[in-house]
Design goal:
Blueprint: H1 3-19, H2 21-42, H3 48-72, H4 78-85, H5 88-118, H6 125-150, H7 156-183, H8 192-218
Helix pairs in contact: 1-5, 2-3, 2-5, 3-5, 3-6, 3-7, 5-6, 5-8, 6-7, 6-8, 7-8
Length: 219
């Protein structure tokens, strides 16, 4: 695996994103409008556990909407061209890295928007931010492979939702539990076991993506 080729693919992804600014703008609009509607619905008064669950639900659907286009924007005829230039592992690594960077930016933006409208009940900021960043990387790792599979089908979003939900559910439940602990003031050391499991799930997702993607690539 050559880092130069991965870097070139990352630059290609950035250029495509810049040419399709409406897609990123649509995701940001979805994020802000959803939080604003929740603010109006709850009138700014929301229980801590509801705040936590609502935050992760909004982040999950924003991640699915943004990563779904990752492979959809690639024309089928381009795959043969990419196959002649890079390996399947390099192509998938570039996709996951770019999606992870995109998700980290989206997660931080979503957190700032959320606390601006819904208030900031988080007691342990360090634990919550660490958990949120790990969650965004986990979403990118899992949904990148699901997006690659769904891009081969006609009904992409439906297939991505059906395949993605059972795979993301264990990670999502852990993220909600750790962030709930952060809302109540738990430290990073107190939640070290759960954080380790989250990192383990992310690592397994990345390894499986690198193993399984070549079979999709050859299709």
């Amino acid at each position: 695996m050559q880092l130069q080729k991965i870097g070139a693919l990352l630059r290609k992804e950035a250029k495509l994103e810049w040419r399709q600014k409406f897609a990123l703008g649509g995701i940001l609009l979805y994020l802000i409008s959803t939080v604003f509607v929740a603010y109006l619905a709850f009138d700014g008064m929301i229980p801590v556990q509801t705040w936590n669950a609502l935050f992760w639900l909004i982040m999950l659907f924003a991640a699915m909407n943004s990563i779904l286009k990752s492979f959809m924007q690639e024309h089928e005829n381009r795959h043969l061209y990419y196959f002649s230039l890079v390996s399947a592992g390099e192509f998938m690594a570039a996709k996951m890295i770019y999606n992870a960077i995109l998700m980290l930016g989206l997660g931080l933006t979503g957190f700032l928007v959320f606390i601006s409208f819904m208030g900031n009940p988080v007691v342990s900021i360090s634990l919550f931010i660490l958990n949120m960043l790990l969650g965004m990387i986990g979403f990118a790792a899992i949904l990148s492979l699901i997006s690659a599979i769904a891009s081969r089908a006609k009904n992409n979003f439906t297939l991505m939702a059906v395949l993605g939900f059972p795979l993301i559910l264990p990670l999502l439940l852990l993220l909600i539990r750790v962030s709930s602990a952060g809302l109540h003031g738990a430290s990073v050391s107190e939640m070290a076991a759960d954080i380790f499991i989250i990192i383990l799930l992310i690592s397994i997702s990345i390894i499986l993506s690198m193993i399984l993607f070549p079979y999709i690539w050859r299709d």
